[in-house]
Amino acid sequence: MAPQVSSPKEAGQATKHPALAMLRGALVAAVVVGVNAAAVATVAAGLKGLWGALLGLLMVVVFSGAGLVALHLSRHTSPTMQLAVAMSSYTGRIAVFGGLLALALSSETLERNVNLTALGLSALVVVMGWMAGEIWAWSRLRVPIYDLDKEVSA
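and the corresponding structure tokens:
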């Protein structure tokens, strides 16, 4: 069997949407870790543990995914604007997350139906899985060291 050789056109292509590629890698890793955390939480704490783990998975995916989607939407702006979007997105997500956490901790209904320990622990391990998936995806991106859209004038 002859070895597969990629065409020159294929080998030189930059990743067109790096934030989406990172989102895919992070999402796959988070779901794998989250499903395993849900299985462990179900064995440890029953149905309340399952709901807690799934809620933790959902929270991490929504909040972490929102940051990468914001970066993807700002991809055609200047680097300074992208930094501002990233910082604003992060600050906003942390503020919303803190508010939701305060509501969750004071909610008797949530406490009756969800194991908060399972929620916290699963959210923690899913965040680590998300970060590992994001780093893994980033390490495989093809990011050019020069601007492919501009022509060099002699």
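(Above: one complete record from the training split.) DSSP finds five helices and no strands in the chain.
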